[in-house]
Write a structure and sequence with these properties.
5 domains, 51% helix, coiled coil, MutS, DNA mismatch repair protein, Chain A, domain 3, ATP-binding, Rossmann fold, six-stranded mixed β-sheet, nucleotide-binding, endonuclease activity, 785 residues, alpha/beta, 26 helices, DNA-binding
Length: 785
Amino acid sequence: MQQKVFKVLEFDKVKEQLLEHVSSTLGRELAEKLAPSTDFAEVVQSQEETDEAVKVLRLKGNVPLGGIFDIRPDIKRAVIGGSLSPHELMHVASTVHASRTMKRFIEDFAQEHDALPNLEQEAEKIIVLAELEQSIKNAVDDNGEVLDSASETLRQLRNQIRTKEARVRERLESMIRSSNAQKMLSDAIVTIRNDRFVIPVKQEYRGHYGGIVHDQSSSGQTLFIEPASIVQLNNELQGIRIKEQQEIERILILLSAQTAEHSIELEIITKVLGHIDFLFAKARYCHKIKASKPTMNDEGRISLIKARHPLIPIDEVVANDIVIGKDFSTIVITGPNTGGKTVTLKTVGLCTLMAQSGLQIPALDGSEMAVFDAVYADIGDEQSIEQSLSTFSSHMVNIVDILGRADYNSLVLFDELGAGTDPQEGAALAISILDEVNRRGSRVIATTHYPELKAYGYNREGVVNASVEFDVETLSPTYRLLIGVPGRSNAFEISKRLGLNERIIDMARTFVSADSHQVENMIASLEESKRQAENELQEAHDVLKNAEMLQKDLQKQMVEYYDKRDSLYDKASDEAREIIEKAQREANAIIHDLRKMRAEKQTEIKEHELIEAQKKLTEAAPKEKKAKSSALRKTNKHEFHPGDEVKVLSFDQKGHLLKKVSSDSWEVQIGIMKMKVLVGDLEYIQTPKAVEQRTIATVKGRDFHVSLELDLRGERYENALARVEKYIDDALLAGYPRVSIIHGKGTGALRQGVQEYLRNHRAVKHIRFGDHSEGGIGVTIVEFK
């Protein structure tokens, strides 16, 4: 796409804001190269990558991106045998450490939360170079200084240096503490010049110490002298320092060679870290502008929900719904100049460029964007002083260029089409240009203040009028886009509000043709009707939302009621059972004692009397209470089967039997709820006709029953759709009013395929996702006609 379009739509400013969020020069380099892609698969991939980074930031809040350096020049120099400095080696070790940290971070996130296919794939490319990192860190500290521990030789040399330095300092300090030193020295200190220890001696006493003069003060009154008595010691110290430097060079060459051995791995690490930094920079920017991921298509459809211009502060910008490419391919925004029309053009154009660059767009979830081969824009007053072109000529040069390039997969934006020349000719040119671009199949949004174009949207197929709302009461635009409503002139109303004499306004009205007056009234009526419809729609949404909340609350209370009821019943049954068992144990003990007494001849008790006593004790034991509907169980002679339609007596609701849970209870589906119900609480209504049909019995077998659920998890896409088709036929034959299809969440491909099939099925009345208790978006509930 042309750089000129980027400038006109201010895409470069978006990139400048993006650059504020990079963490390394590697990420900055990629952000500076950011450009829209025209490859659909590439755009989808880029959007997925950004969305994963957004997800990580949302759940973690931060990402370990510190310590990343551009080490590519260092790697190249090491490969050709160059020696890296301690700071460069520290940058290598820091980058290796950052890659290891990032790899572990992504892997841990994928285990704790959701999978990150793209980021995990990037993390897999990172080769852990722990040995190289440790070798460098053992030799170089964070400040780029070579450590004593780099080698045993270096440790010994530095110990010798410290010993020699101590001896030199001791010798010099004894000199400056002598009685004559105070008058001969400018200051009683030991300092260093040219890497040799010296003392500051006054000019007139330079011959007292002898030795070598290394420096003098700016005034020449102080000389920095190395006394003759320590020259030898300083020479020995310098000799050891030279050996130290040679050892340091040897260590750096070894580490540089080790770095060169891993040059390929380091190049990969650098590339991956730069890409990851770039992704999280996009994620942070999207979070800042409160953006969301759009659904991409390659069919030219744009559907923006509450879209905002990303360069206007959120608390100032007005969000708009903008749709094009489905029912109409051209939008003509008419009405007076208020500023809102141009912002609308730039919002659509900028959101398109952002989406095709892998950036999320400043709009609500559910927005849809298209991938265009090109975006063309003629916006703003581009009068060319250099070419001595007027505003009209400048615009016409751009339009001629656009007409030479635009095709069926182009997005074309015209601002004030035909302006800058005679109104009648300008309007005619605008209509002709729009016809030409529309004929080529391009998606077009044009703004104009010519009243002649208000009728254009009604006379052309695929064209719709729009306008930016203007509040006459406040004499200012609201910047709300009204699609389907052409703009109308507000000159009379504004003049009246500003105090112009009504006699003059009435006279002006007489000069306006009856047709124009009628059109303005029609537009005013359309605006009012649209506002009223939007208000009623919002009220309906609010009522629906409240109803859904009440339904969920009621369902939750019903589930809690049945759970509590079952719990109390089970508890009561357990207590009654314990009482019965206790009574029986006591009865048996009594009988046992009586028999023992008889055996010992203490009393005469006949066996039939013992049996009678035991019978009475058994009858006296507490009886286990049954459900209040136990009487019904005796009279209910029907043998239940899965799929039977029954009535739950305690709740007075109809449902269908799903499966037998135990000998005295069934799982019943009432509406969207499933619950366990005792047999005594069930009243048989009927068996679905399809189960009784002889044809079904012949084909399926006598014991065949259709389940109210179809589980597709783990199935391949083609097999799953084949199972759905067969299952829907079986469910319809069984006479079920609704069924559930379990497809799981996964990538969403199976869910979309299943729902697309169901929407096109002639017998399906309605489909929806399951509630939280039914499995959420992993389940689709199907209602039949």
